[in-house]
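Request: Mind sharing a record?
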Amino acid sequence: MPTLSALAIYPLKSCAGLPLAHATVEPRGLAHDRRWMAVRPDGTFLTGREQPALLRLHAVPTPGGLRLSAPGLAPLEVPRPAEDSERQDVTVWGDTCSAARAGPEADRWLSDFLGEPLRLVHGDGRMRRPVERPYADPGDEVGFADAYPLLLTTEASLAELNARLEAPVGMAHFRPNLVVTGCEPFAEDRWKRVRIGGVEFALRKPCARCVLITVDPETARPHPHQEPLRTLATYRKRGTKVLFGQNVLPRGEGTLRVGDPVEVLEEG
């Protein structure tokens, strides 16, 4: 039976991944995953596509908020915004929603690190961002992830890709939440429903990859020949999109642990 080999969250959108031994599944995905985001003063979101240095920013959830650290700056403890804190409309792709501002100290820290005026916002319980239809059910919501609460990949699919590359890449290039081992390459393309650690998940749509996977997560430098995207496009291109991984919706709540069995409930 396949098993869960890795768990990760990205507390601030496009920041460095935070590996976990266990994680709590909530309606919007794993607890603390992409609940914070850097935005420009007009509310447009910022990601590693425009600012690769974001991948070198480490964000760690704390009982009271978030701890930020990055090369060249002293770490910063950011309190979770209060319920009556200032709010701002922010835009993630085509979605506009209301987020809580973290405050001027966090704004200055982010701006100093990335070299442009920025604000830090939090997707609190008052924020509402529905998952795109028709791939979701009524009531499905997402935080600041691109479109879906969770991303699942498999070690076998990465191994097949690496066999085609001159220099192999790690799974961190693809920024998944759930990594599965013990299946054949791209078996996840057929999975419709799985159960992990007692929690069910619906796999709704392959993940279309972008230039971000060409950025080295350790150095924040783009690959000079756009690998692994270029090689992936030679055999995983469907129409105009290059696919790797599956977008996932939680269908329950609970705790996941690395090593949990992955039971495939439905294929299609």
In short: The longest helix spans residues 104-114. The mean pLDDT is 97. The radius of gyration is 18 Å.
